[in-house]
């Protein structure tokens, strides 16, 4: 099985906005970037199209759905990190309103959660659950396309690479870029990372 991971395009949000699970729409620049990425597809089309169920990911998935005549399969486990009370809030506003919580989260983003949100370990657990379920029903000839967000994709890649949680921020995941995994012998291998176009696997 080949698993192609795509971070969605840039959302409509002002600079400094904590996006998280805020109900943001895909911006025009993000839409155009995903269209360019979709146009670079090579090889057989995907057989399945999964996506986060957040608005901006669903809108991005529609670009690929139209290209490949597939119905997107939304899954809440592919959502961005839940920032709770800080979803859609400006960085400065969050740090001023709740300075102690802000400092705690920045000091320990792996195990601490924003007020009403989730920590990195929670996100990694749900992303790992999604990947395990997919691998359990793998088909050697299946190509699966996933449209998600920066942090869930980091979590999936970190799981495959067996990276300690604290090092996952070293994985660069740009908007409208693709990474790819191949399942071989029951183990995922990384084929490529953070590419502005799709590559041959």
Using brief descriptors, characterize the structure shown.
201 residues; Rossmann fold; 35% helix; globular
What is the structure about, briefly put?
This protein has 6 helices and 6 strands. The protein is about 35% helix and about 15% strand.
Q: What integer is the average pLDDT?
A: 95
- Give the CATH level 1 class: Alpha Beta
| End-to-end C-alpha gap | 11 Å
H/E order of the elements? EHEHEHHHEHEE
Structural classification? alpha/beta
Tell me the domain tally. 1
Oligomer: single chain
Which percent range describes the beta-strand content?
A: 15-25%
Q: How much helix, percentage-wise, in residues?
A: 25-40%
Shape: globular
Largest sheet: 6 strands, mixed
Could you describe the 3D structure shown?
The chain is α/β, with parallel strands linked by helices and 201 residues long. It has one domain: 3-Layer(aba) Sandwich (Rossmann fold), CATH 3.40.50. 35% of the residues lie in helices and 17% in strands. It is built from six helices and six strands. Strands 3-2-4-1-5-6 form a six-stranded mixed β-sheet. A hairpin with a 2-residue loop joins strand 5 and strand 6 (187-195). Helix 3 crosses helix 4 (99-107) and helix 5 crosses helix 6. The protein is globular. The mean pLDDT is 95.
């Amino acid at each position: 099985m080949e698993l192609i991971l795509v971070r969605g395009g840039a959302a409509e949000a002002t600079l400094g906005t904590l996006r998280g699970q805020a109900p943001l729409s895909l911006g025009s620049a993000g839409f155009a970037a995903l269209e360019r990425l979709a146009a670079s597809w090579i090889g057989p089309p995907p057989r399945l199209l999964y996506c986060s169920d957040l608005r901006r990911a669903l809108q991005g998935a529609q670009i690929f759905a139209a290209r490949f005549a597939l119905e997107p399969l939304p899954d809440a486990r592919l959502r961005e990190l839940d920032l709770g009370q800080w979803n859609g809030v400006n960085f400065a506003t969050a740090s001023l309103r709740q300075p102690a919580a802000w400092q705690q989260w920045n000091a320990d983003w792996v195990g601490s959660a924003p007020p009403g949100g989730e920590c990195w370990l929670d996100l990694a657990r749900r992303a790992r659950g999604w990947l395990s379920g997919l691998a359990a029903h793998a088909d050697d000839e299946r190509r699966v396309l996933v449209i998600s967000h920066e942090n869930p994709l980091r979590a999936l890649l970190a799981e495959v690479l067996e990276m300690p949680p604290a090092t996952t921020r070293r994985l660069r995941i740009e908007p409208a870029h693709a990474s790819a995994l191949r399942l071989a012998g029951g183990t995922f291998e990384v084929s490529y990372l953070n590419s502005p176009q799709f590559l041959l696997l």
